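Hello Y.,

Per our agreement to keep a running log of every chain we model this quarter, I'm adding this entry. I've kept the format consistent with earlier entries: sequence first, then predicted structure.
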Amino acid sequence: IETEGLTKKYGTQTAVDHLSFSINEGEVFGFLGPNGAGKTTTLLMLLGLTEPTEGRARVLGVDPTREPIRVKRTIGYLAENMGFYSDLNARETLQFIADLNGLPRDVSAQRIEEALDVVGLGENGEKRVGAYSRGMRQRLGIAELLVKGPKVAFLDEPTLGLDPEATNRMIQLIESLNREKGMTVLLSSHMLHQVQQICHRVGIMIKG
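Predicted structure for the entry above:
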């Protein structure tokens, strides 16, 4: 992942101000800063979900502004507030994601069961997502990443609002994405001690 002079302005407000950094393949990179620093806006530009005012970005060699669909095919995104269809259960949710990504049913069936087992939701696979706690929804988001199998994962405040036990479990899951699946991870957070536990390098963002 590379950015060069990446800038985003909303009218007279500058959310991201000429940001330049790079993340190596196979690295867990901590994107650290207080709320409102511009971290989420940066992620949205890297995802191709909003266009920069100035500068450029590359994800796996692809410009997310020019080829957003191509970028989305190769990355996974865990948003700060995950959106799920509350009337679907976990298996149905993951099958929906697999279908969107064009995975054959025989492949997706195995991945879904493996993913639910890894994140500890196997026994709750038939439970409607609308009845899940925040921690369970975050783990389901990690299961989505495992089913899709992206090369790069963007995680936006993945432990926000979780209790200590759920936080530790989430940190372990992130470590396994990197160590066992070989994913490059960009972890956005304002929690320094959590970032220090799992990140190879840290970039600190303040006022864009």
